[in-house]
Design brief:
The chain is 54% helix and 0% strand. With 233 residues, it is mainly alpha-helical. The protein folds into two domains: 86 residues, Endonuclease Iii, domain 2 (Orthogonal Bundle); 102 residues, Hypothetical protein, domain 2 (Endonuclease III, domain 1), CATH 1.10.340. Its EC number is 4.2.99.18.
């Protein structure tokens, strides 16, 4: 209807944006029981030797593949596996070692700056709180969640592109923003699966439920999935 022909006094109503219905608790439990049965102890794929190298690896992994980060950090961590050694190495050398990674100039600067702050504010140790971690240069909520989960054993849900996709496709925690999905996972995932949940979702998204060509024929959750992205087996 044109503006001229619209009845007086009536305005177009708001456009409704809906998200899929979340799954029941029993359905979510079934999904994670299948993940656990197939892979009881999933691991992150970023190589590290301690909480500091984990932190650095995660900072470097933004908008980069784990494989690409690992290729660069093998040499970097041989030379500098503590904040003190990283400062001695210096930004120019760090930049040279990580130049194969996207946004390497900014990331190299952040690695050196966070090393400096760890020494100045935290006695050279990686802090075990979200607030303290997020105070470090280059560290956002997702990075903090990864470090808290892997280094300190906390139940956190780091939402990357894979976790976001799978949480929506499987309707575990549908949401339109990263934070909405994270908070949804906190509520939906049974506590006994919480420690490994984001690893299962990342690996599932990376190797099976891919963005453009999901391999539905070999998916553990095929019979439960009703995503519009689902492909014929």
């Amino acid at each position: 209807m044109s503006e001229r022909n619209r009845p007086m006094g009536r305005k177009p109503g708001p456009v409704k944006i809906t998200t899929p219905r979340p799954r029941s608790a029993a359905e979510v439990r079934e999904i994670f029981e299948r993940f656990q049965a197939a892979n009881p102890e999933p691991k992150g794929e970023l190589e590290h030797t301690n909480s500091f190298t984990l932190l650095v690896a995660v900072v470097l992994s933004a908008q980069a593949t784990d494989a690409g980060v690992n290729k660069a950090t093998r040499k970097l961590f041989e030379l500098a596996d503590t904040p003190e050694k990283m400062l001695l190495l210096g930004e120019d050398r760090v930049r040279e070692l990580v130049k194969t990674i996207g946004l390497y100039r900014t990331k190299a600067r952040n690695v050196v700056l966070l090393s400096e702050k760890l020494i100045a504010k935290f006695g050279g140790e990686v802090p075990a709180s979200r607030e303290a971690l997020e105070s470090l240069p280059g560290v956002g909520r997702k990075t903090a969640n990864v470090v808290l989960n892997i280094a300190f054993g906390e139940i956190t849900h780091a939402v990357d592109t894979h976790v976001f996709r799978i949480a929506n496709r499987l309707r575990i925690a549908p949401g339109k923003t990263v934070l909405a999905v994270e908070l949804g996972l906190e509520k939906a995932v049974p506590p006994e699966f919480g420690r490994h949940a984001h690893h299962w979702l990342i690996l599932h998204g990376r190797y099976t439920c891919k963005a453009l060509r999901p391999e539905c024929g070999r998916c553990l959750q095929n019979d439960l999935c009703d995503s519009p992205d689902k492909r014929a087996a």
